[in-house]
Amino acid sequence: MTIHYRSKTEIEGIRRAGLVVMEILEVLRAATRPGVTTGELDALAVRELARRGATSNFKGYSPARGTPPFAGVICASVNEQVVHGIPGKRALKDGDIIALDFGAIVDGWHGDSAITVPVGHISPEAERLLRVTQEALWKGIGAAKPGARVYDITRAVQSYVEGQGFALVEHYGGHGIGRELHEDPFIPNAMEQGIPNPPLRPGMVVCIEPMVSIGSPRTRTLSDKWTVSTADNSLSAHFEHTVAITSGEPLVLTSLASASVGG
Ligand code: MG
Ligand code: MG
Fold this sequence. Notes:
Layout (H helix, E strand, L loop, with lengths): L7 H24 L6 H14 L22 E5 L2 E3 L13 E10 L2 E10 L5 H19 L7 H14 L3 E2 L4 E4 L6 E6 L16 E4 L2 E3 L5 E3 L6 E3 L5 E3 L2 E4 L6 E2 L11
Antiparallel strand pairs: 1-3, 2-11, 3-4, 5-9, 6-7, 6-8, 8-13, 9-12, 10-11, 13-14
Helix pairs in contact: 1-2, 3-4
């Protein structure tokens, strides 16, 4: 395991990438409505990246083992889809929820964030799912302090979500980020055996990204080899921020909100 500890200047670099990610996610949120296709949202993100002189860290990504390179600059995961949905011809419908996971590279630094957005009018249960997942993210961010360890983030996220009667999707989680999209350490969303539990120290930059299911915590990967759905097709949501651990409060690099404020 190789954990990088970034200087203030390096964290400022990641923040520039993070703020580009934040701005473009807000453009995508505003464009999300019934009738729009996930491919149109992807094309919009391509244009917004180019306008800012940024590049994609998602497009062409291949985690190995015969997985085809990822085709989009966004992951667009609708309803029971958890993560890694490939943007395409699917048109959004009133009542859908869509998880938009998005990253960018600016001057060699990576940012990564995700939001789940309602399409038109959604059910009260879906609204509660979005609220609980976003709140779980901020519980995790609140635990990202020096003196704590990776599992303290996991525990903060998991105890909140399970207390609300929902489940964390198994075997997924956050990660370090910096010169690469995915760096050490892995930050499991739910406790599992055999995952290293390193201490959190100032200069670590991590992505915290709870994925929450209304029903089963289990998943299946679709035949496109990317899209991950809940095993029982229950609704799922995903929120993510890139966060720097400092000697004091965590610094959220993909939001203008601070951890003490939340939301
Ligand atoms: Mg992401
Ligand atoms: Mg991530």
